[in-house]
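Training component of the fellowship. As part of building independent skills, the fellow (R.M.) carried out the full modelling exercise for a liganded target. The chosen ligand was calcium ion. The inputs are recorded below so that the supervisory panel can assess the work.
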Amino acid sequence: MRILIVEDEAPLREQLASYLKGDGFAVDCAADGEEGLYYGREYEYDVAVVDLGLPKIDGIEVISRLRAEEITFPVLVLTARGHWQDKVQGLEAGADDYLAKPFQMEELKARLNALIRRAAGYASPVLSQGELQLDTSKKEVRVDGRAVELTAYEYKVLEYLMLNPDRVVSKSELTDHLYEQDFDRDSNVIEVFVGRLRKKITPVNFIRTVRGQGYRFVTENG
Ligand code: CA
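Fellow's submitted model of the complex:
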């Protein structure tokens, strides 16, 4: 999952970035509202964390402008402790959730994961399709009740496909959402991950190849 962090306090920004990278997110950071707005317009994110007090353009304005341009990824705002008006303003501008500083990283992570899965239409943290289950909080995958050992990359591919069901996901979209900018963008690497993933979740066969386009995670409804 690709996340945008817009936070002007360098130590907090770096702490957030390293924590979320450690948890498997691909992270982009912006240090002010102008840069945040630029990233938000330019790239597709799965979720964003936006501090409200920012230099150049404040966080409320950043969110309002993105929403006015119909950019819809979920946004969690960071507010100063005790400033309840900020929460209201943030939500009214188009944010989806908030956290008051200081906060626990674990809580932030849980809220971000909830935002991502709700945006994809899942209410439960365990994504289920037939005999396949993916627990987004424990990062565990089961086929017919049996635990399947996946590498971090294989897990990320499966999670992204399950969160984007019944549509074609190209290899470059997978690369954009799952890997850091400096990742080797060779599409053969994705093919290898998908191939291994398919073998590991056999006999489940929900990942279809769409020739020349990418992959589609097929559900019963699709
Ligand atoms: Ca700030």
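The panel noted the following from the submitted structure. Residues 33 and 57 are 4 Å apart (CA to CA). The helical segments are 10-22, 33-42, 59-68, 84-93, 105-119, 152-163, 171-178, 187-200.
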